[in-house]
Amino acid sequence: MARILVIEDDEDIRSILTQELSKEGYSVEAASSGTEGRLLLRTAPDIILMDLMLPGLTGEELLPLIPKDIPVIAVSAKAAIENKIELLSGGCVDYITKPFDIRELKVRVAAHLRTSKQKAANEEILTASDISLDITKHVVKINDQPVHLTRTEYAILKILMTDAGNVISKTELLSRAVEDTPDLVESSLKVHMSNLRKKLKDVGGKDYIEAVWGIGFKIAQDA
Fold it and tell me: Would the CATH topology of 3-122 be identical to that of 125-219?
């Protein structure tokens, strides 16, 4: 059963979306603000329907905090093409303008869930440089040599490898790591990162993770 998170401050629209999507057999969680929506990311939804003009965190503020493997459909009254381009460029997979036809919305949700499922099936093993990470088996290897990581170290490496080449901020690391571990907090990030980098270097003989001062971390380009 696919899990859908609806983030919508309009009570009537939130109720309609929850009821109609539940009829299709989906498990639906609903939030009335961006702040509440961020907390419900812990439920690991398969897809998110999100308004933009939200109390607390706005849709634009929340979007960068959502793990990139979760498709987000913006559902908004903003109809300007500039808004659509900005959101689609910023990470949304689709943009539906209010008022919408519920039948069309259901079709789009089903289509993006199929695409996401197919993509996930093709990405069970992540690779970056000479590191491989098997998402299904939770196994990490460098040149076929196993690297023994803690659950938290694995969670950090998985995020960095999912977006290899991109700088991941400390805030995003903390937000996305809840998918795999509850143990990564701001005060412990430095220690976990240091241990991870050492373990990778001990097996591979080089630095695989680069710290970008004042921003975050990324897989080193020359690794």
Answer: no
pTM beyond 0.85, yes or no: no
- 116: tokens are 């996401």
Domain spans of the chain, in order of start: 3-122, 125-219
Please give the CATH number for the structural domain made up of 125-219. 1.10.10.10
Distances (CA, A) of 178 to 40, 65, 66, 155: 11, 12, 11, 8
Residues 6+ apart with CB under 8 A from 116: 46, 47, 69, 70, 71
Interval 186-195: pLDDT, tens: 899 999 999 9
Share of the chain above pLDDT 70, in %: 97
pLDDT at 120 (0 to 100): 64
> Which contacts (CB < 8 Å, 24+ apart) does range 183-188 have?
183/151, 183/152, 184/152, 184/155, 184/156, 188/152
Dihedral of alpha carbons 163, 222, 129, 188, sign: negative
Which CATH number is associated with domain 3-122?
Answer: 3.40.50.2300
